[in-house]
Structures are given as structure tokens and as C-alpha cells.
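Let's study a protein:

___
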Amino acid sequence: MSWTLAQIAQHVNGQVVGDPDYLIRGVGTLTHAGPEQISFLANKKYKKFLTATRAGAVIVAAGSEAGANTNLIVVDDAYVAYAKAATLMYPIARADVGVHPSAWVHPDARIEDNVSIAAHVTVEQGAVIAEGVSIGAGSVVEAQVTVGRDSVIKANVTLCREVQIGERVIIHPGVVIGADGFGIANDQGRWIKVPQLGRVVIGDDVEIGANTTIDRGAIDDTVIGHGVKLDNQIQIGHNVTIGDHTVIAGCVGIAGSTHIGRHCAIGGGTGITGHIEITDGVQLTGMSMVTKSITESGVYSSGIPIEPARQWHKNVIRYRQMDKLFERVTSLEKRLKD
């Protein structure tokens, strides 16, 4: 299938510079795109490739047109516009409607119209699968789970009892939602399990990456807000709440009963301790360690960036000497004051 630049520009709210009737059949990078593909320039360090690209058209932000030797679509935000253009040209493929013969659906489950249930899926008693939902092979939908309209559950996903999934949610392979949280109590040296009685409630337009796990609440619910985007291999503990439109990169661990606000961005490998609050609009750079609440929006970092091993060893020695240095400075300050 092909699209004219005029059609793409209308879809991304951009302005064509060049031939509006030029046909595009796919996307590509600035360095590898061909004449029938459209590319984009969103990072200034790639501007050097704009003059030599073979792409039939390039999406650029206003003010970045200089040096181009091809058709352009000028927009406010090139990356956002590219995302919309790529979505137009590569819509999510929908599975065939129907229930595969090898799937097992409890007689008391409710399956609405235009639902796809693939091979070896299990849907237990009281589950509600709304219109337009697709469930991939090998997935398990336990009792009393609700999945909202047009959501896509990919292969080998487990939705544990009473989990609530919103509309237009995408859940990638291997995700487990609603397993028991890490609730244990020490009874005179012996650990005993604390029952996990809450649910997990997922909002609309959420995307959850492969092998991410979201624990059910201990008493109240674990809640993921509307528009949240979670990368692969994230661990979210019991009773965590995540505000609308927050994004979290891979390998983040969030301990229980932590509240994260709206429009936050959390870098990969970050660790967040339990029972704290992070306010709206906070950005945590990768590998940060958060041990106390953050009450003001802004960018926060922690950890030590990589450096040559010899220098790192020297720094470690200095870190170990800090207490003695502090004591010496304190003593000198006292002597000067006296």
C-alpha cells in the first residue's frame, strides 16, 4: 500500500515542502532509506545525514530544513510525527475472530463480539472479555478478570484472579499481572505468608512490556493509571500506584506501597524503595537509587558513571577515607573558631 506525502502530512499535521503527490510505501532511517521510503530527523547529531539521504521524504522539525536534498514534511515535533506516520502505514495486525478449538473457556465466562482467543488459552469462571479483545496463544485469564475493549493480550500472559484491564491496553509476551506481592511476617524467626487480598487495576491505553510483573495489592489495589507505558522486565510491588502518562524504562524495580505521580519518566535500571511518594513531573535518570520521597518536580540522578578501573579504585579508597577527612575538617574548624 502507498500514501502520498499530502496524505501523510495531513495525518501528522505537517506541511509538505516538495511534491505533495510523491508516493511513499514504507519507512527507513536517514542512512538506509530508499526513494519509496520516508525517514525523520529528530536528533541534531544525525543532521549530517540529511544532505546525502536517499529517502523519498524526511519528516523534520521547523528550522531543520537546511541542507535537505529531498521532499520534506515540516512539523512541530519530528519524532511524534514519525510515530503517527509509522502507525498509519503499519497498523497493528488483528488476529482472526473466534475461539481456537484447543482453548478452554469456562461456561460462566462472558465473551463479547469480535474476540480472538488463540490456541491453548484458558479463560476461567466469571471472566469478562470485552468486544474486540485479542488473546494470544498460551495465555491464562483467571477467575473474575475483566479485559476492556480492543485490548491486545499477547502470548503466554497470565492475568491472575480479579485483575481489571482497561481499554486499548497492549500486554506483551510473558507478562504476569496479579501474582501475590512479597508479603511476609516474622513470627519468632519463622517467616509466614501474609495473604494478598487486593487486585491490580490497569487504566486505558496502557502498554506493558515483555516479562514485566505487577503484584496484586496486599489489602488495597495496585493501580496503574491511564496512558502509562512500561518497558520490559519491570517489577512493580504490591500496592504501588503509578499516575497517568508516566513512562518507565526496562529493569526498574519498585518496592511496595510507593506512589509515583503523573507524567514522570523513570530511566532503566532504577531502584525505588517502598512506602515513599514521587510527585508529578519527576524524571529519574538511569540507574538511580531512590530511598526517600521526592516532593518537587525536576530531574534527579544518583550512582557513579563509568570510568577507567584504575581511577575507580582510587576513588573507592577516597570514599573510604571520607569519615576521617570529615573528622579532621571538623576538628580544624573548631580550632579556628576557638
Summary: The chain has a mean pLDDT of 96.
